[in-house]
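Module 6 notes. Inverse folding takes a fixed backbone as the condition and produces residue identities as the prediction. Think of it as a translation problem where the source language is geometry and the target language is the twenty amino acids. Below is one complete input and output pair. Work through it position by position during the lab.
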């Protein structure tokens, strides 16, 4: 059973088993998470969730409620890390769970920095291995993996922090399986449900761990049983691995899990620069290159007659030409490209300024807003079958800018790996710049403690970072 495999890995992983490069990447992911989380607390999504906790629980921010808000805050900006093959955002769930549990004084979890990294690596590894197993079938069936598989990641982290034995860890992950939820329609319909998925995953994972700790049973067949997670939420995968009588043959699935656990997939995690859906980023990167080309040719945007975007199927489906709110905007390929060309940068402050000037107002008369709409209307998006064949190993986009100027050739650029992938990485300094841009009032010197946090207690680290009350 897959749950048994995951649980044994979770129980057995020790700090000394983790490569130094994976610890280094975990520290970078933690800094990136904090950058997004702290700014995300200011988002409308977070403010509504906090108000709701006050209404329902009188402001009792125990680990469950804190974890719920953490997940929403860290996923609301679309700037959190991800893994392209697993098709999910592990950091938002993993770190939100640790922060919620260590920050809950009632739990009195006095864990070391080494135990912190054990829990973090376990969470990333289980999330990514499961995501790679069930995708793309899971996503194609309409599920948002950050919400569904995120529940397992949160449960794994919570189980590790609580020191559950093998049997109780299996029950925890079984309970996570039966609570897994999150529909892609919430993402693409321009709703706050996308960030809710992350908050719900953290909440369910912590709840499952404590239920299991106290004797509540979940069962080890809830992933690969005949009526389990794979059958219900990844039915094409289930059908491909059934025998003649319709029973799931688990041997190949179990072999896949064995091959992908203890591989330290956190090393493959991407980090984001732009607050848009990841599938849009390769087109943004190509557009920014072409923007420089326009500048070098001393051509302004009026010289653009049309823009063709050739990309893979999933990216081409982000074709909202009329975004009505921030959630819509993050999923809009044409508007992301238009803003890339018109605005000075793609930072949150720049986008907030455009919103204030009427980006979603049909009657707005601001010059930049009107130019963005003009450029967006010149864009054509095509599902390119050749590029589609390169996915999911790559996420390629080709952008072609056609010019009115008879003396200049069309401009063209192709990006195969968006900025932030391990093949096209953001540096440590880049992430510090991201942190400072998102949180200009934060004392950046406090981040120094993360460099050697394996030698500290986690409560000491969180206290230095002002993450505990």
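Target side of the pair, the amino acids:
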């Amino acid at each position: 059973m897959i749950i048994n495999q995951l649980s044994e890995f979770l129980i057995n992983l020790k700090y000394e088993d983790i490569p130094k490069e994976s610890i280094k990447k975990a520290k970078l992911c933690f800094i990136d998470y904090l950058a997004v989380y702290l700014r995300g607390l200011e988002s409308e999504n977070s403010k509504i969730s906090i108000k709701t906790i006050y209404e329902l629980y009188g402001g009792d921010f125990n680990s469950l409620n804190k974890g719920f808000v953490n997940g929403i805050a860290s996923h609301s900006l679309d700037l959190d890390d991800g893994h392209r093959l697993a098709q999910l955002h592990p950091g938002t769930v993993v770190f939100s769970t640790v922060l919620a549990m260590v920050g809950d004084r009632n739990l009195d979890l006095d864990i070391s920095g080494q135990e912190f990294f054990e829990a973090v690596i376990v969470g990333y590894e289980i999330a990514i291995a499961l995501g790679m197993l069930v995708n793309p079938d899971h996503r194609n069936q309409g599920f948002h993996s950050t919400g569904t598989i995120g529940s397992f990641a949160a449960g794994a982290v919570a189980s590790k922090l609580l020191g559950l034995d093998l049997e109780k860890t299996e029950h925890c992950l079984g309970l996570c399986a039966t609570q897994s939820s999150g529909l892609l329609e919430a993402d693409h319909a321009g709703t706050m449900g996308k960030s809710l998925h992350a908050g719900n995953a953290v909440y369910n994972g912590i709840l499952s761990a404590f239920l299991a700790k106290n004797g509540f049973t979940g069962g080890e067949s809830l992933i690969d049983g005949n009526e389990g997670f794979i059958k219900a939420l990844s039915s094409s995968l289930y059908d491909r691995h059934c025998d003649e009588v319709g029973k799931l043959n688990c041997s190949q699935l179990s072999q896949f899990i064995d091959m992908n656990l203890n591989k330290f997939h956190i090393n493959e995690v991407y980090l984001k620069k732009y607050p848009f859906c990841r599938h849009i980023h390769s087109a943004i990167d190509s557009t920014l290159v072409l923007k420089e080309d326009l500048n070098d040719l001393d051509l302004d945007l009026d010289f653009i007659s049309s823009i063709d975007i050739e990309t893979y199927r999933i990216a081409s489906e982000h074709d909202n030409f009329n975004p009505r709110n921030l959630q819509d905007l993050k999923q809009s390929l044409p508007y992301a490209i238009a803003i890339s060309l018109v605005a000075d940068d793609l930072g949150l402050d720049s986008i907030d300024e455009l919103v204030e000037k009427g980006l979603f107002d049909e009657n707005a008369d601001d010059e930049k807003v009107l130019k963005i709409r003009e450029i967006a209307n010149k864009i054509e998006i095509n599902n390119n079958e050749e590029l589609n064949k390169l996915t999911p190993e790559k996420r390629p986009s080709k952008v072609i800018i056609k010019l009115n100027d008879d003396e200049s050739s069309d401009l063209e650029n192709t990006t195969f790996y968006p900025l932030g992938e391990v093949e096209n990485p953001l540096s440590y300094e880049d992430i510090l710049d991201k942190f400072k841009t998102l949180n200009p009032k934060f004392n950046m010197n406090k981040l120094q403690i993360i460099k050697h946090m394996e030698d500290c207690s986690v409560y000491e680290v969180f206290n230095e970072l002002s993450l505990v009350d």
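Reference fact for the lab report: DSSP finds 23 helices and four strands in the chain.
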